[in-house]
Amino acid sequence: MREQKQGVLVIIGGAEDKKNNCTILNKTAELAGGKDGKVVVLTVATEYPSQVGKEYKYLFNQLGMSNIDALHIETREESNDEEKQQRLREASCVFFTGGDQLKITSLIGGTAIERLLKDAFSMGLIIAGTSAGASVMSETMITSGLEDDAPKKCTVKMAPGLGLIQGVVIDQHFAQRGRIGRLLAAIAQNPAVMGIGLDEDTAIVVKPNNTFEVIGSNAVTILDGMNSSYSNVSESKPDDILAMTDITLHILPQNFEFDLTTRSPILRRFIDC
């Protein structure tokens, strides 16, 4: 039985390195227990489950893990299937692949598998997700939106996520697809929630103490509207450009840390250098 402690989240911005140093996948394998761990690759989000499942099984095998299971779910009935639940109970890490985040929530939301994942996470399960598998981690997730555009109310569409991390909304492929406008639109509608934009081949490792560390080759963008002095989101029309003032912005590359409770970066080791 797992020790009574919350697990770790590895939230990946998509297109993680699979050929060179594999920094993010190596970290995931390490957290999962290395050669003694078991990863269940959940392919529920993708249209190509067999292909994607085989790819990640091969990758984790190359990283020294032999116990890898690819699990696909196509119906809500399957999300209540006892055999599939048992396969997940044996995991030290569950890895959500990319695809469509709405497929994840619509197929497992409110089912036995969602309850199992949340219970196991509270007991120490490692949960990782890339691209769509990253967006689904938050209570409210971005499902679609305009890219390379100024923030407008119509810029972003949102829906309930799995709620594994509180108080944030996550976007992925962030700098590469010009998604700052839609993340700004998301936090304009709820300034209490921080926006976290994850670049490709970049991840945050969220620890039980509600801090995270950045790993990977690019950066994480954090947008905080808590202390915003003005926004016209309530009176604007859907196509109007939003006005927002005093938004706090942080850009954090690898090895930097952030405290989600105090809403501030942890800079002590860099200041001391």
Features:
alpha/beta, globular, 9-stranded mixed β-sheet, Rossmann fold, 273 residues, 8 helices, 4-stranded mixed β-sheet
Architecture blueprint of SSEs:
Layout: E1 9-12, H1 23-31, E2 38-42, H2 49-62, E3 67-71, H3 82-89, E4 93-96, H4 101-108, H5 112-122, E5 126-130, H6 132-135, E6 140-145, E7 156-160, E8 168-171, H7 180-189, E9 194-198, E10 202-206, E11 211-216, E12 219-224, E13 230-231, E14 244-245, E15 248-253, E16 257-259, E17 264-266, H8 268-271
Parallel strand pairs: 1-5, 2-3, 2-4, 4-5, 8-9
Antiparallel strand pairs: 1-10, 6-7, 9-12, 10-11, 11-16, 12-15, 13-14, 16-17
Helix pairs in contact: 3-5
CATH-scheme architecture: 3-Layer(aba) Sandwich
Spatial ordering of strands, largest sheet: 3-2-4-5-1-10-11-16-17
Low-confidence stretches: none
Percent strand equals 25-35%
Total DSSP helices: 8
Going by CATH, the homologous superfamily would be: Class I glutamine amidotransferase (GATase) domain
CATH T-level topology: Rossmann fold
Task: Describe the 3D structure.
The protein is an alpha/beta fold. The protein has a single domain (9-257), classed as Rossmann fold (3-Layer(aba) Sandwich), CATH 3.40.50.880. It is 25% helix and 28% strand. The chain is built from 8 helices and 17 strands. The chain has helices spanning 23-31, 49-62, 82-89, 101-108, 112-122, 132-135, 180-189, 268-271; strands spanning 9-12, 38-42, 67-71, 93-96, 126-130, 140-145, 156-160, 168-171, 194-198, 202-206, 211-216, 219-224, 230-231, 244-245, 248-253, 257-259, 264-266. The strands form 4 sheets. The chain has a 9-stranded mixed beta sheet, with helices on both faces. Strands 8-9-12-15 form a 4-stranded mixed beta sheet, covered by helices on one side. The protein has a two-stranded antiparallel sheet with strand order 6-7. A hairpin with a 4-residue loop joins strand 10 (202-206) and strand 11. Helix 3 runs parallel beside helix 5. The longest helix has 14 residues, at 49-62. It is globular, with a radius of gyration of 18 Å. The chain starts with 8 loop residues before the first strand and ends with a helix. The model has no long low-confidence stretch (mean pLDDT 96).
